[in-house]
Write the structure tokens for this entry.
Amino acid sequence: MRLGVPRGLFYYDYKKFITLLFEDTETELVWGEENSDDILSAGSRFVVDEACFPTKLFAGQAASLLEKCDAVLIPRLMKDFSGRWLCPKLLGIPEMLWELPCQDKLFITDPLYFDDSRRLKKSLWELCRKTGMDRKKFSMNFSKAYKYQNDMISGVVHQHVEAAWEFAPAPPAEGEIILPNTFRILLAGHCYNVYDKYANGEIMKKLDALGIGTVTERDAGHKEREKSVAELSLIKTPFWESMVRILGTAMCLKNQIDGIIYLSSFSCGPDAFIIELLKEHIKEIPVMVLKLDEHKGEAGYETRLEAFADLLEHRRSV
Ligand code: SF4
């Protein structure tokens, strides 16, 4: 069976997990291609206008894979290892896709709770049995995949090397001289904004050209993030996983960086809260918010990056 896996939303955190789950089985995984204008316009046709930008890209990915695969994987992710909820739009992604054609080819999983291995295993078995996987093989692969994901979260496997290697900038061409970056900033936001070159307009490359290097949430440990958010003594315990992940990363790294650029999705509910918290708790360094949406204003975008680079220069010179 050819099982399509959309390149969006869960892809950046769970690619290796999915690879291990289907390793040495009859299922051939077909990864979605890089996002593009075509994928975005296909996705925009199938979801409501008010949907966030990453959801539209995800719908376009699923539509494109439906044409080439026997089935397309649509996970219903509920909680990650921390036991916190994912955003409501991620929980309801299968419902968001109800207008896609060939609904019988969408392999929608049962709810997935990564903080409960027995429940997770049961849900994933329901998925894998549909692909014809043998029960014994499933148990072996599940154990391997779950251990990997757990090790990655707890820092036993280095996240940066193991999970983000494919998103690193291309190596220099022969003879090309790379100057050390003058500044270092945190590129904050949901992983599908930070690592998707199409969604963020190749921001890492643009910043690099301005002498600004980037770090991401993969440069802060899970435990350290949790600890630094706990130390803020917020009035309400953070509800969403992304809140701790993004705010915690910023708190952990703020003394090692010159600024923060937050890549925010148009129409994202959690971002509205996270940005306010960032502004409240990060006073030492500049924070700039860039809204990502389908109406890409390249010129305005680049001007803002240049202005941010000027601001960093100015701060250093005074
Ligand atoms: S967290 Fe924001 S960007 Fe991500 S799926 Fe939810 S609404 Fe969309």
User: Anything to note?
Assistant: DSSP finds 14 helices and eight strands in the chain. The chain has two domains: 2-154, 168-317. Residues 148 and 279 are 35 Å apart (CA to CA).
